UniProtKB/TrEMBL annotation:
The lineage of its organism: Bacteria, Bacillati, Bacillota, Bacilli, Bacillales. InterPro entries: Chr_Tranpt_l_chain, Chromate_transpt. GO terms for cellular component: plasma membrane. Coiled coil: none annotated. NCBIfam families: 2A51 (TIGR00937). Belongs to the chromate ion transporter (CHR) (TC 2.A.51) family. This is Chromate efflux transporter. It is found in: Cell membrane. One of its GO terms (molecular function) is chromate transmembrane transporter activity. The chain crosses the membrane at residues 93-117, 123-144, 156-187, 207-228, 304-326, 338-356, 362-382. The keyword Transmembrane applies. Keywords: Cell membrane, Membrane, Transmembrane, Transmembrane helix. It comes from Paenibacillus zeisoli.
Amino acid sequence: MQKEKTALPGSSKSGPSKLLEILAVSTKLGLTSFGGPTAHLGYFHNEYIRRRKWMDERSYADLVALCQFLPGPASSQVGIGIGMMRAGVLGGLIAWLGFTIPSVAALILFAVIMQGMDISHAGWIHGLKIAAIAIVAHAVLGMGQKLAPDKIRATIAVLAAAVILLWQTVFSQVAVIAAAGLLGLWLYRKVDVPEIPDTDVPVKRSFAILCLTLLIGLLLILPLLRLFIHQPLLALFDSFYRSGSLVFGGGHVVLPLLERETVGAGWISKSDFLAGYGAAQAVPGPLFTFASYLGQMSEGYPGAITATLAIFLPAFLLIAGTLPFWSLIRRNSKVQGALIAINAAVVGILLAALYNPLWTTTIMNSADFVLVSILFILLVYWKLPPWAVVAAGAAGGMIISML
């Protein structure tokens, strides 16, 4: 007997209207999602899952787990994946554009007009970081209630957080998820796992294989082309493509690679690099758009476009290449058992990130704690939209700076 497929809200919309909706929602997120990759997952959860119900909680957690496994910017990959599951490859591309373009435009503007300005200690930026903590705490609370509701899964979540906090390497997240998967295979081998919603990914497997082939091919070919073709934009594309392909953890983890590729190559000075990093902290959207600033500083507008496309291309190819197969594999009963533990571990990973780096680098005194408590109450109990909480955080940060 064929299973009925779960109809998601808005699934009856036509192709163009669905794409326009994805563009509108992702652009709103691109304009308001401050706080880095972990905070972005909280914003996505609130907008895509809680409000619009484009995916169920388990599917979202499974997608987050997959993106934590893959190299590249995890939050951007989650956004691309949601767009693809909603409206195919074009939906993924539009979701990425909406989420990314605001940050790209802002950082190019920083490079052109505000080069060298130190804004990292501005009060409103500090307020934005505090708002991000409230957003992440809300996401951890919501996901924990659904994905770690009993003592075994809560224990897995806490152990995962402990390992992430005490063993801080670029491979710790992957190791924790892999260990949780193995533990889930053993713990839930005899447990009746409820069926997950049968949602299809509108991406052909032949296209997925093509994407994975292209991903590996570019990694091999670009360095060879760079040896024989001495063209600045080609060198730029190669450097940023490798940075986007080979970094696990995304976000801040990519910064040492980018510094080596740009400052080490003499494309940009150390002081300009640090100034751009400060600017990247001030804008919403993915931290990988720091590449837009670096490209603009080294090769102008063509460099900004080249660096941006190069650093995000591996993320797109990886999601397009794995999502069709992942959707099939996750329906296997043994894989579902592993995912029960993996999803609990993802909650632990988010909990660890809530403490470090978000809490430890942001909450410095009693005033900061008061502000984050107020923002959390406004978000959770007063049900204010995230953009309003972000605005309140920025205003609160300015007030704290004047005290």
